[in-house]
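Much of what follows relies on a compact textual record of a protein's fold. An example makes this concrete, so a full record is given next.
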Amino acid sequence: MRVFFLLLITVASVHAQWKTETYSFQGGWNSIYLIGDASQDAIGNLFPAEVVEIWRWNSNPTQVQFTQSPQTPSGGTPEWSVWRRGFPAESEFSELNGQTAYLVKCLGTASTSIPAFDLKQTPLPPTAAWVRNGANLMGFPTFKNGLNFPTFATYFATFPAAIVSNTQIFQYVGGELGPSNPIQVFSTLGEEVDRSKAYWFSAEAVENFVGPLDIQLTNGSGLDFGRNGSIISVRIRNRSNTAVTVTLSPQASEAPPSGQTPILAPVPLTRLVFNPATLRFEPQAIAGPFTEEIPGSSTVELRFGIDRGAMAGDQDSFFASFLRLTDSGNLMDVWLPARAQNTSLDGLWIGDITVSGVESKVPGSPGSTTPRDFKLRTILHRDGSGTARLLSQVFLGQLDVAPNDVGLCSVESLLKQDAKASARRLVAAHMPLDQVITGSGSVAVPGALSCEITVPYNDPTNPFLHQYHPDHDNKDARFQDFVLPGGVTATTAKISDGVEAPAITRSCTFTFTASPPAGSEVTSGWGSSVLGGTYTETISGLHKETITVSGTFELRQASEINTLSQ
């Protein structure tokens, strides 16, 4: 059953980058290939008034579409969807999809030239699906060198099945459908592959050929880092037998059309380059074009990241641009879309400090390296104003205040009493209980947060306090409570600070870094959903001298709730 769509719709704002492609038509039937989506406006507003019909080709691998000549568009078949100007009830689509071929019918005859027009769109990574024993209405991301595009013979040299003598290639030249439109391409040596047009191929092949270079991304929508992404890989395979030099250059997006999401700035892309000295991939800012040589019949994998520390603006700020890819043979011109959005670092962060150094105070035993690393569970919360707090415990569940939303609290009594079974409690066991420590500094990349943990002399977690040891029980020699001056018996505090159990102060500093520390296994999300860096702690009261502890830390965002009840 045919499904109809109204064309007069409210077009939603999208997060995208923009590039203009130019098209020209003759009266009658033409073909175009869109490298990107053009959904920013109703179709009738995007094309000149001379365009009266647009037919979208829907590739269907189970159908044989033509043998001697292309199939005439026919409504009601699964291979075609139609849009007709002024006839919304007869129109089956309302948006123009990217990486898609279309037939366009214009008023006039083959001798009628329609003025060239620009169509702004959101480019997508190139894709193709060739159909065995059927028709393929295809377009290709060819490079325009001056006034010329590459010829069919040159462009398809690594995919000869598309142009061998027993295949047929057709192109549209305007006019009514018939023997003179589309016409067959007989000279693959002289005919050029125009990136703005779509062509019929009857090649008996199953392939994903889009050009002499195969480009595969770990993210199908491009270099889309979203709010939390950090690394995207691009694999480029050289189909030819000779080496190819690929040039990759950052390109700014055009201004968005009216009503679309504003772009604050280009995406601050980085490339991850292997450093043999550190045995790590290290980020380098992409400030301009760079090249990669791909040997014949080989594949290279390029890893791209993002410098979120260079992204200004609030959490709704949107960044968009392109990474343009061209080759030394002047055959392909691919615009990989890059986009990112500022992430919010507000909320609950949970992870571990990995302590690898403890300053030795033993005479004749200098150094600080520990035989083995050990972990300290860490819980941080950043509220909506950017204030960060170090927590000894946190509860996640329904709160005891209306409307009983799920929230975060530092004490159990703030939870809804009959909903505790579904709540979760997280604890940092190395800290005294019920502590909420407001830090100085910030949870940001780059940035640093300092917190001071105080372990009172009478706290159960104080290592000097032990109820079964007479020297560490805060009682006198007769196991009685100490008496304060004036003959008053101590109640809350049995003994003065420092007599048997001194208070301990831990001054902690979390330094957030733009890249993971050595030994980290984080592969994505660094700087957004994963934070970390170097850790230092100075301990006073445990020894007559201060002791310095060092290591690294990694925290993951467990909740974006930026309010903590306490």
User: Anything to note?
Assistant: The CA atoms of residues 195 and 251 lie 19 Å apart.
